[in-house]
Design a protein that fits this description.
Length: 447
């Protein structure tokens, strides 16, 4: 592929003997891969799992289509294999408070959520509004329960979450050199000075992230670029200016240590890792894991409290009684616009924050009734729902297109969780032998 001359010269000087195989790798195809979703219950899933990825439990090489039941229902997430190591390195423990600061479209957030098993708090933030909408779609499809999804700049965020998180992931906006072979367009934005410009922004983001980290907490920093200015040199800058140490990262086949000589020579940079496309089965990536050495207490914050009116609460309870089994009853309720949400009581007061989702949408508040939310169908365990209806693959084609489906005329009227091959795909309302379609208009497609 055509690469900028300045880019080639730079890596010729940096890589020496490795240069030719590095450059040649840009003419190879990128690897496709996907992750299956550990948050979803067992179902009749059709995926080729014959090529597992060694460093992530649910990762496999192979291509998946966006127009399958598995994808629509959130049983699978398509992700480049190098990107799959980042959440594994972050290794959140269920119960942790985790911030994914640069989160869209949601590859790492969905991965983190799977590792957290819906325990603890995941805050996923994306600064660009359009991308934040895609982040919402992906987290909801994945069935993450009660994530807080924000559309903020790091500076505003740090005022609301002082010394709050156990772990923060900065998957930084970068010059994207590692994605050149996947996305040829990215070479057009590149110039000799671009990595240095990106580094300025990265330092600003890191500085705000550090304010939000609990003393003793961990910071995971990753990029998809080879540029030392955005990789080792950012970590060297953190070590020089803040109280942190690097933590070693396990290396799998083809992963190599970061290069101290590409920064200030600090040997601690050997704990960082680089994924080079001529050495590793994936695109270019850099990952560092840092531990805060500062002591002191985490700050107390004012938490969000429920705000649902007595009337809405009563309607929700009635809806639950009619439609859910006894053990499913979210009771931290927030009215937000026309929607009723379940939220995680650990979240701070949301005033002054641009909130995409305060938690999981439960339902639309209508006059004297609740209409269950699509996102709830993808997050709920089918055992918690009283009425479940199974449709076949042909009916699913019609469902995602927005059509109604004819069902047994004897079925009683009301809300049903719709499944296809035991995968939850939405809620529908049965009326006189017709299953009315509530699949969101914006998500509809033709198979
Ligand atoms: C590498 S991408 C994130 C990919 C994502 N973590 C995933 O795995 O799907 C970096 C993100 O940072 C966002 N970003 C850009 N400028 C930013 C800033 N100043 N602060 C925070 N995030 C920013 C971009 O919009 C982009 O979505």
């Amino acid at each position: 592929m055509q690469l900028p001359e300045d880019f080639k010269n730079k890596y010729h000087d940096l890589l020496g003997d490795d240069y030719q195989s590095f450059i040649d790798s840009f003419d190879d195809d990128s690897y496709n891969a996907f992750r299956t979703n550990p948050l979803k219950p067992k179902a009749d899933v059709h995926l080729d799992r014959s090529r597992p990825i060694a460093y992530t439990e649910n990762g496999y090489y192979g291509k998946v289509s966006g127009k399958t039941v598995e994808h629509q229902s959130g049983y699978v997430y398509s992700q480049e294999p190098s990107a799959m190591y980042v959440a594994e390195v972050a290794n959140p423990t269920p119960g942790d408070k985790v911030l994914d600061l640069c989160a869209a479209p949601g590859g790492k957030s969905t991965h983190l959520a799977g590792l957290m098993q819906n325990k603890g708090l995941l805050v996923s933030n994306e600064i660009e509004r359009g991308r934040a909408k895609v982040l919402v779609e992906n987290l909801e499809r994945f069935g993450v329960f009660d994530p807080l999804i924000l559309n903020e700049d790091p500076k505003t965020l740090s005022k609301h979450f002082p010394r709050y998180f156990d772990k923060i992931l900065i998957d930084a906006p970068c010059s994207g050199e590692g994605m050149f072979r996947k996305n040829h367009e990215a070479t057009k934005y590149w110039s000799k000075d671009y990595p240095r410009e990106c580094a300025i922004r990265q330092k600003e983001i890191v500085a705000e992230a550090i304010k939000m980290l609990k003393p003793g907490g961990q910071l995971i920093y990753s990029t998809c670029t080879f540029a030392p200015e955005e990789d080792e040199q950012i970590i060297a800058w953190i070590l020089d200016n803040y109280d942190f140490k690097t933590l070693p990262i396990k290396k799998y086949d083809g992963m190599v240590s970061g290069k101290p000589e590409w920064a200030d020579g600090n040997e601690a940079l050997k704990n960082t890792i680089r994924l080079f496309p001529h050495l590793f089965k994936g695109d270019g990536h850099f990952i560092a894991k840092l531990q805060s050495l500062s002591s002191g207490k985490s700050k107390k914050i004012k938490h969000q409290t429920g705000n649902a009116s007595t009337e809405v609460r009563r309607e929700w309870e009635e809806f639950c009684k009619r439609n859910f089994q006894n053990d499913f009853y979210p009771h931290h309720l927030l009215e937000f616009g026309k929607m009723l949400y379940s939220f995680n009581p650990e979240i701070p007061n949301l005033n002054g924050l641009k909130v995409m989702r305060p938690g999981t949408p439960l339902g639309m508040i209508k006059k004297n009734r609740i209409e269950p939310a699509y996102a709830l169908a993808l997050a709920i365990n089918p055992h918690d729902v009283k009425n479940v209806i199974e449709i076949d693959d042909n009916q699913w084609d019609r469902y995602v297109h927005g059509d109604t489906i004819t069902v047994d005329a004897k079925l009683k009227k009301g809300w049903y969780l719709i499944q296809c091959r035991s995968m939850n795909i939405g809620f529908g309302k049965v009326v006189n032998g017709t299953l009315k379609n509530f699949f969101p208009k914006g998500l509809r497609f033709k198979v």
